[in-house]
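Contributing new records

If you add data, match the layout below exactly. Sequence lines come first and carry their own label; structure lines follow with theirs. Keep one chain per record. Anything else will be rejected by the validation script.
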Amino acid sequence: MSVDNAAMAFLGFWLLFWYSAIVPTTVTDMPSQMTALLLGMPILMLIIFWVAFWSEVKRNHTELSDIIQG
């Protein structure tokens, strides 16, 4: 199983848009905690979605094997 190409393209566009909007604002005088939050949030979201996707892949693989083997 893999992620659909359209979903990957959307994700790439979203990250490009997010960081192109956030990086200039973080260069200005913004508190460091806010900067870390704005830069780290998309990375944390990617990790959460990656873990959820692969756990579903494993679960579906197990269920499909049970169905096929009877």
